[in-house]
Predict the 3D structure of the following.
Amino acid sequence: MSTDGLRLVPLAEEHLDDVRALLEDAEVLHFTRIPEPPPEDFPEQWLVRYEQGRRDGTREAFAALDGDDRFLGLALAPTIDREGDEVELGYIVPRAVRGRGVATEMLRQLTQWAFDEAGALRIVLVIDVENAASERVAERCGYVREGVMRSIHLKQGARVDAAIWSRLPSDPG
């Protein structure tokens, strides 16, 4: 699979079946803040939250599509701090496209969006230290691993050790 033609479009209702399919992946549930088990209407709830965030400038969500409009994953800005000029980013790819450069290209585009459109002066990624593949994506995209936050709350009482990664506009790509 080539990442040529990969583009990010605002998450919308037509992507909800693909989001629902992501929720069936144990790794997606394990390494994200998505509740386990996810509520039946979680994709719809998520879309409403991100649409509200798009309007008020506090969060953004994109579907990653290939040149044939096939869904390749989600590119997220779950937190946009306008006052602090800091944005947290995240990315989720289906099992079928993992290991093919899709997450790396998604993060490259999402990072560019955060600098250019969201005005970020600092971008952060919070990555479970057990998620080596995601850490490789961050490194390939020029992020710097700052350290490990020990036993941070992830969800529903789950605590994990998570690395904090960052990127500044002055960092090499």
